[in-house]
Each structure stands twice: as structure tokens, then as C-alpha cells.
Amino acid sequence: MKRSICAACAVMLSLVMAFSAVADTNLSPEIYEGGIITDESWTYYGYTYGGIGFAVPAECYMYNLTAAEMNAGVILLLGNDDFMLQLRGFEPEQQTYEQFKQKVLETPSAETNIRDINGTEVLTYKNTRANASSELYGIAMTGIDGKMYKVSIFTGDNERFDAEAPVWKIAEIVGATCNVMDYSSFISD
After folding, report:
1. Whole-number pLDDT of residue 34
2. What pLDDT sits at residue 36?
3. In a 3-state reduction of DSSP, which class is residue 71?
4. Of 53, 55, 106, 148, whose CB is crowded by the most CB atoms within 10 A?
5. Residue pair 43/177 in contact by the 8 Å Cβ criterion
6. How far apart are CA 45 and CA 13, in angstroms?
7. Measuring CA to CA, which residue among 168, 119, 140 is closest to residue 54?
8. H helix and E strand count, the chain
9. Which of 170, 172, 145, 179 is nearest to 52 (CA)?
10. Burial readout 59-86 (b: 16 or more C-beta within 10 A, e: otherwise)
11. How many CB atoms neighbour CB 27 within 10 A?
């Protein structure tokens, strides 16, 4: 039942996100025009309860979550040969955005960027000491429900993380298209 609700929310969010504007970026105009991914090889995913959304390659698959993953706050796990993405939510007593941001800003191997998206501060960070089993890129923010959400991007099935690996461009686009928005007005009971 919970998976069906999450899947329905992801579908609704993908439709809504297709019409939502997001932050400006330096991505090529044929892919990213006016804040929207215009390339059909990309689609939008997200989590309506937290108001978190982002673009991912359309050719990816969603993993079934285990009970342990769900108990750890994992909401979405998807990927393909080039990347693996995990969306995880944290209750305020577990970790807040400010606590997490402070840790990342103190990490010497984190190349960071902070920007505002729809009135919410969003932290993106790149691991400058990447390896095949580490988080390569991440995005953190507070959702509309007050929880901290973290998007983590890892290598895909090909385990590539060299400078030319597709995972880096995917991570850049996920980070640039990340959005925080209240989608409740788009969802009917």
C-alpha cells in the first residue's frame, strides 16, 4: 500500500514538475531551457509529501525498497548503468538541514554550493575524493514538511566515476533541477 501511494505521488509529481520552473544553471540550452528539461531522455521524480522534485534520466529503473531501507528513511532508490540515486528523509530529531550543512561545509573533500530555490536554501556538494563506493554528489534541503531531505548520487552498475563518466553530468542536472514546492493544490482527495 505504501509503495503504491509513493508510486502514485511520483507519477503526479512528474506531471507537475514538467511545468514547474527551477533555478537557473549553466547547462546547455538544448537540455535545460527556461528552467525546464526539454530533452525527452529526462523525466521528473520526487516526493510530494516533502515537496522535493528533480529530473533524472528517463531510462532508469526503480528498486524495491527493503523494510530496513524504509525504516532508515529511504524513500526512493533508482538508477541504471551510469548512476544510482537515493532520496532519504530525516526527522528533525535525527538530523536537521543546518546540522548537516555544517558537517558538509567542514568536510575538506566537499566542493559545495548553496542557493535558494523557491525560498528554501539548498546545499549541493561534490566529493572531490571520489571512489566507486562513495557518495559522489549530494543535495540537501528542508522539505515543506519540516524534514531534512538528502539526495545522494553514486556510481551506477558500471562503477565509473572518472572525470568523463556520465554520472557527473547526471549529478549536475539532478542538482540543477532540484525543486522544493508545495504540490498539495495539484492533488485531489
Report:
1. 47
2. 64
3. helix
4. 55
5. no
6. 6
7. 140
8. 4, 12
9. 179
10. ebeeeebeeeeeeebbbbbbbbebbbbb
11. 16
